[in-house]
Amino acid sequence: MNSEIRALEPKALWNKFADLNAVPRASKKEEQVIAFMKDFGTSLGLETIEDEVGNVIIKKPASAGMEDRAPIVMQSHLDMVHQKNNDTVFDFATQGIEMLVDGDWVRANGTTLGADNGLGVATIMAILESNEIAHPPLEALFTIDEETGMTGAQGLKGGVLEGNILLNLDTEEDDEIGVGCAGGIDVTATRTYEEEETPEFKLGYKITVNGLQGGHSGMQIHEGLGNSNKILNRLLFDGFENFGLRISEIDGGSLRNAIPRESKAIVAVDAIHQEAFELEMKLQGATIQEELKTMEPDLKVTVEAVELPETIMNLGVQEGLTRALYAAHNGVYRMSADIPELVETSNNIARVLVKDGHIKISCLTRSSVDSSKWDLANTLRSAFELTGCEVECTGDYPGWAPNMDSSILKVLDTTYQKMYGEKAHVAACHAGLECGIIGSNYPDMEMISFGPTIKGAHSPDERASISSVQKYWNFVLEILKEIPKK
């Protein structure tokens, strides 16, 4: 299946991407890909370093005639988001990604593709391997755990890198030059509760919300995509208000940086309400489908009879939980007052797990303004603490402030206009890039971000444009030629 990928142009890049995608590389489980990248660097006879946290740095001297140029760092992250369709049988721990060509797009077979940020990694690998591409002194920085905490960037120490300019290859529109990004913080609410024996006169049901698109909780948070956790809670709230529905279990969403696509709950309802409850859930599901039909045409709400669960949540805790989830903000909190159409602050209610007397709710709050990030985090904290949860705010990382006067921005802006006859879109983004964190230890390093067009990142609909990758590759090669002198 991946052989047709290797035949695509530029072959140097696509072949490295295929090699990389054969290696399992989930966030926080990067042992195999770290070893793969170290073997790659040493096989080329290049200085290869693994730092204390697992980042891999490969150094390559300048090509002939480029020795007087400013040394650069080319940076991408090794890890990828692991998501699959619920009917896809796939083991991310042992299997390589199965890729296919669909018109102008490369996709995966029912899973995430790993183009985020595998195409950036493959680009750097192709340049390291080539004896023909002109480039200045080069340090390749492959970071780990970008998707679930940016601990690789956070663990990178000052003084390790010598480059003056950092090229981050993690932007997902080929006409965009990234000059800034949002910071983020993980908000996690937990508590325990007493379980009660389920009365015999009740019936068991499983309520499932699925068929949503999902996607990137930063770049796509403004698109109006459905959040399966919020939709399911709406149904649970309605079922309790009208029929005394009692919750046994909830399992919704997965990763913090992915808009949740699927959620389910096991509940109990008085047998006397069977017909009315089933009709109400059908009507409520139809109402929500109508509300979201433009963005979520495949949304499904399924209510099916199951064996009566043995236990249910304590009633007071259940009431507090459903109200807190209703009150907790999800989506855009504030748009930027300074940059048109840029989301400033947002939250993703990413994961809800209720089982065996334990509640855990995981959110990712993002903002380009640190005070606004904490304002929203405290808003969430307040809602969850009112229902008895303990709330932790962890993994705080800074945003990346734009520098509109940097020399590397001028290089990219001029080169893009010369090559394509129009100006690139210079912008900050609402995703979390590693530039802000790296810059905290390298404050004098100029930074820029760019990349090929990738759609649907963090979901099984992730796809990369073949024509865009060709355009981007040519752009990379020209940028390397135009790096200014020291």
TrEMBL record:
Nucleus among keywords: no
Pfam annotation, one family: Peptidase_M20
Transmembrane segments: none
GO BP terms, alphabetized: proteolysis
Enzyme Commission number, as recorded: 3.4.13.18
Assigned protein family: Belongs to the peptidase M20C family.
Enzyme class: hydrolase
Gene Ontology cellular-component annotations: cytosol
Catalytic activity line of the entry: Hydrolysis of dipeptides, preferentially hydrophobic dipeptides including prolyl amino acids
GO MF entries: metal ion binding; metallodipeptidase activity
Cofactor(s) listed: Zn(2+); Co(2+)
Species name: Formosa agariphila (strain DSM 15362 / KCTC 12365 / LMG 23005 / KMM 3901 / M-2Alg 35-1)
Span of domain Peptidase M20 dimerisation: 210-283
PANTHER family linked: CYTOSOL NON-SPECIFIC DIPEPTIDASE
This protein's name: Cytosol non-specific dipeptidase
Keywords: Cobalt, Dipeptidase, Hydrolase, Metal-binding, Metalloprotease, Protease, Zinc
InterPro entries in UniProt: Peptidase_M20 (IPR002933), Peptidase_M20_dimer (IPR011650), Peptidase_M20C (IPR001160)
Lineage, opening ranks: Bacteria, Pseudomonadati, Bacteroidota, Flavobacteriia, Flavobacteriales
